[in-house]
Amino acid sequence: MAKYNVMSVLTNKRVENVNQMQNVLTESGCIIKTRLGIHDASEDSCSNEGLIILHLTGSDDEIERLESKLNEIPGIKAKNIRLSSEEV
């Protein structure tokens, strides 16, 4: 039975909180299998909003701790979704 933890991290202050957010993600780097960052970018400007999608591994406590630390940063909303192939 496959189990997946997928966390979405939305920021509306990407430029202002990038260092703090990066520090939290680095601290939890061993439980991040995949990281995908999405934001509008062009030659002239870079959007202040962004979305990060994380595929996580690790214990429930580690994942909950990451979610909590991210949500403490102003302008960030993080939400973990646990998915399983097990029949409900």
From TrEMBL:
Chain segments annotated as coiled-coil in the UniProt record: none
Pfam families named among the record's database cross-references: TM1266-like
Entry protein name: Iron-only hydrogenase system regulator
Taxonomic source organism: Ruminiclostridium cellulolyticum (strain ATCC 35319 / DSM 5812 / JCM 6584 / H10)
